[in-house]
Amino acid sequence: MMMSRKKSSKEDKKIAQPYTKGTLAIQIAMTVAAIFFIAPILMIINYSFKGKKELYLNSPLSLPESLNFDNYAAAFKKLNLTTTFTNTLFYTVISVAILAFLCGVTAWAIARCSHKFFKFCYIYFIVGILIPYQALFLPIYMIGYNLKLTNTRYGIIFMYVATGISFGVFLMNSFMSTVPLELEEAARIDGCSVVKTYFLIVLPILKPAMATLVIMQAFQIWNDYLLASLYVSKKTLKTLTVAIQSLFSAQSSDYTTAMAAIVVSVLPIAISFLCLQKYFIKGMTVGAVKG
Amino acid sequence: MKRKNLMEKKMFRQYLLLVLPGFVIFTIGLIIPLVMAFRYSLTDWDGMSAEKIFVGLENYINLFQDKEFLDAWWFTIRFTIGNTVIQNIAALLFALALDSGIKAQKFYRTILFIPCLVSAVIVGFVWLKMFSNVLPEVNEVFGTSINFLLFGEKRTVLTGLLIANNWQWIGYWMLIYLAGLQSVPSDLYEAAKVDGAGPIKRFFNVTIPMLAPSITICVVGITTGSLKVYDLLVSSTKGGPGRASTSVIYQTYTTAINGRQYGYGSAMSVTLVVVLLLVALIQVRGLKKKEVQA
Predict the structure, then answer these.
(1) What is the least distance, in Å, from the CA of B209 to any CA of chain A?
(2) Which fold has domain B57-293?
(3) Is residue A182 part of a domain?
(4) What is the pLDDT of residues B247-288, one digit of tens each?
(5) Can you tell me the ipTM of this complex?
(6) Are residues A159 and A33 in the same domain?
(7) Residues in chain B within 8 Å Cβ distance of A249
């Protein structure tokens, strides 16, 4: 009885009801808010198609006279796009892959082994979540410099892994209770080693949690500015965000190119967000609620 | 029995092998820098010379008399309080609006969420152009005279940055409140209704207590996030006009990297880490207490 009522009222909520005064007001207010949120994005797209002359002669609110892609061509060149784009993609993919692997095995080992050292590890990693790497950029730069990690590909990847791992371990650890112990034990009796058990039994069950981890880390690393600006200053190693920032400061008056550059850099995340929206939203809220 | 012990030892070693790589990377990349920051903060190192003279707590004592550093804190605190208040209230209101059964819920959710996918460096630049080029034109169209050049004046730069930062993050926190709202069992509302509680009473007596875990996450997340502000400033105000929007990290960067005062800069870093840890702990404690009572 209780159950059925709860269910029906939840379903009612989903079906759009006819407007009352209140909901109509909310609908209008939300539309106004949505305009505030979308306006800057429309402005970026609008500017990215405008010519240099239009910038000075026409109103900033006017639409471009024609769809010209000159700004995109210029952005391609000035950002050194093929290099910076591949760099960013490379750093993101490799760091996230390493993080996914390390966080999974670390969290699992911590959850399964009751030895004191592993209990210490859990607290050690959790404290790491509270330590802001942004505040420690200076020693992070210095240690990288001393270990010859600066201006190398593996250096920046190492740093992304180091700064992302504590949250990842914490996130994966909170999902470990979904892995049935009986399955692991059965595998062990069949003679599987610890590593093999992880890959055959645990990993497939952890897939949804992995998806969350991958999505969250990927877009953070893709958007990172501080670490990238500290670690890779060489032209051939630069990331997209760093290149865009130098474009911003170099061309503050001719910003149509900068706008096209923004579109290019945001497009990959925007597209993956729209395709994976369900996982994105689930991942972020699960990750946060568990916290 | 002996065999079991042997087996356990073997497994322990294998588990250890799994934990060690992560442990080492984490230690080198984050924990050692933390220790280094503390050590350097006790010296007058300039980042280049081989010798680091131990000066004790001198750097910390100087910090409290350094007007630029105190100003940076003052800006950061105002920025943080502004964000925590506005973002929490706005995110909760938007979540309530989306949960009220209006049409096109998912469409609004997507639009509000998109800004947080963009790098803060880009957000800063976009709002720089919004304030300086686009919005003044809106004045002309509507014949109004609102001052939109918010980044240009010391008085208004904080408002401008708050608008940019809230534009980016409200959608994210809204999503967390929305998930919290949707997990509130509807029986509770009905029971409250039967007891004769009006909508406002229901909101304060049912919704808010049930949302307590989400409130904890959002308050802590927004506060610690705002205290670390840096990326947003790099492309928008560059800490200006004057030093009106210089945050603690921005000031540390200028002091340490540009000013070549690594020891002094490290002391700034340590101060910020300590404050961040304290704030997070106090907030979690205080808010968790409320959760239990609810």
Answers:
(1) 15
(2) MetI-like fold (1.10.3720)
(3) yes
(4) 888 888 888 877 777 888 888 888 888 888 888 888 878 777
(5) 0.80
(6) no
(7) 235
**What pLDDT score was predicted for residue A8?**
42
Which of the four pLDDT bands, split at 50, 70 and 90, describes residue B165? very high
Q: Which residue is associated with the tokens 């990288």?
A: A144
Q: B114 to chain A: which residues are within 8 Å by CB? A: 37-38, 41, 270, 273
Residue B166 is encoded by which pair of tokens? 């809230």
Within 8 A by CB and 6+ apart from A166, the residues are A125, A126, A127, A128, A129, A131, B26, B30
Nearest residue, CB atoms, B256 vs list A33, A108, A138? A138
Chain A nearest C-alpha distance from B57 (Å): 18
User: Chain A contacts of B167, Cβ < 8 Å?
Assistant: 36-37, 40
**Which of residues 163 through 182 in chain B touch A, CB cutoff 8 A?**
167, 171-172, 175-176, 178-180
Q: Do A284 and B175 touch (CB under 8 A)?
A: yes
**Hey, are the CB atoms on B266 and A138 less than 8 Å from each other?**
yes
Domain borders along chain B are 1-40, 57-293
pTM of the full structure? 0.83
Cβ separation B121–A241 shorter than 8 A: yes
Q: Best mutation site among A202, A219, A285 for testing chain B: the one with the most B CBs within 10 Å?
A: A285
CA dist B148 → A251, B158, B159 (Å): 22, 13, 10
Q: pLDDT of B95-112, one tens digit each?
A: 888 887 777 788 888 888
Q: Please answer yes or no on whether B230 and A34 come within 8 Å at the CB atom.
A: no
Tokens encoding A54? 């239009």
> Residue B130 in contact with residue B186, Cβ under 8 Å?
no
- Strands (E) across chain B are located at none
Q: Is the dihedral of CA B96, B101, B102, B105 positive or negative?
A: positive
Burial of A151 (0-12, 13-18, 19+ CB in 10 A): middle
> Would you give the end-to-end CA distance of chain B in angstroms?
49
Q: What are phi and psi for residue B54, nearest 5 degrees?
A: -70, 125
Would residue A272 count as lying in a domain?
yes
Q: Indicate whether A50 and A115 sit together in one domain.
A: no
Q: What is the pLDDT of residues A113-130, one digit of tens each?
A: 877 888 888 888 888 887
Alpha-carbon distance of A194 to A163, in angstroms, equals 27
Low-confidence ranges of chain A (pLDDT < 70): 1-18, 55-61, 251-253, 283-291
CATH number at residue A125: 1.10.3720.10
Q: Are A33 and A93 found together in one domain?
A: no
Partner-chain contact B167 A36, CB within 8 Å: yes
Q: How far apart are CA A235 and CA A222, in angstroms?
A: 18
Interface contact flag, B234 A225, Cβ < 8 Å: yes
| Beta carbon pairs, A and B, within 8 Å | 266
Let me know: does B161 contact B231? Beta carbons within 8 Å: no
- pLDDT attached to residue A10: 43
Task: Mark residue B2 as left, alpha or beta (left: phi above 0; alpha: psi -120 to 50; beta: remaining).
Answer: alpha
